[in-house]
Structures are given as structure tokens and as C-alpha cells.
Amino acid sequence: MRELLIYIGSGVIFVWGVGHLIPTRSIVAGFGDLSIDNRRILTMEWLAEGLTLCFLGVLGALVFLTDGLASPVSRVVIRAIATMLFVMAGLSAATGARTPIGPMRACPIVKSMVAALYVAAAGM
Q1: DSSP letters along the chain, please?
Q2: Considering only CA atoms, which of 81, 37, 44 is closest in space to residue 63?
Q3: pLDDT (tens digit per residue) in 98-118
């Protein structure tokens, strides 16, 4: 069961990250006429979040595939990923989730749910 929780969480957060990466150009364009510097910063930040989410998903799966949860190091890494996702969920709740945009409002929920799956799998 713990294995399934890790794989579901890893898959969901990886796909959520890809969901950030694919529409980057249209998201940035949606902000209208921006200076080139602001456009670059917005693009960088949007891609950074997507890449971070993908990395956290891949890292969780790799740690579990490598050593399961038998190793104390594996459990620490899974807990650290969960902590990072909870922090990112808090940031999203305080910023993007305050907009009327549906996916932005869902971000803290998705991140928190995946973090909770990791916590359940690793035991806190």
C-alpha cells in the first residue's frame, strides 16, 4: 500500500508540473504588454515551479524504486519532499489561489494532497 501511495503521489505531482510547463508561453502572453525583463522573470518563475514539481515527483519515485522505504534515508527524502510540497502549497494559497483562475485555485489542494500521500507512505 505504501508503494502505491508513493507512485500515485509521484505521478500526480509530475503531471501537475508538466501542466505548468506546457502552457508557459500562453500564460505569459495572458499578462498582456510586459517589459522584456518582466516577461523573462515571469517565464523563469513559471518554468521554475513546473520543473520543481516534476523533479519532486521523479525524486520520490526514484528514491522508492532504489531502496523502498526500508532505508532511513529514503524515509527522510520522502518526508522532505512532503515538507517542500506543503510549503509550496502555502505559497500558492497565499498568492495564485487568490485569483479566480481555476487551476491556480487548485494548486494548493493538489500539492497538499500529494504531500499527505507521501506522509502516509513514509510515516511521520
Answers
A1: -HHHHHHHHHHHHHHHHHHHHTTHHHHHHTT-S--HHHHHHHHHHHHHHHHHHHHHHHHHHHHHHHHTTTSHHHHHHHHHHHHHHHHHHHHHHHTGGGSS-HHHHHHHHHHHHHHHHHHHHH--
A2: 81
A3: 988 888 899 999 999 999 999
The C-alpha atoms of residue 104 and residue 118 are separated, in whole angstroms, by: 22
Domain spans in the chain, listed from the N-terminal domain onward: 2-122
C-beta separation of 46 from 18 below 8 A: no
CB 66 within 8 A of CB 81: no
- The string of pLDDT tens digits covering residues 44-87 is 999 999 999 999 999 999 998 998 888 899 999 999 999 999 99
> Is this structure's pTM higher than 0.85?
yes
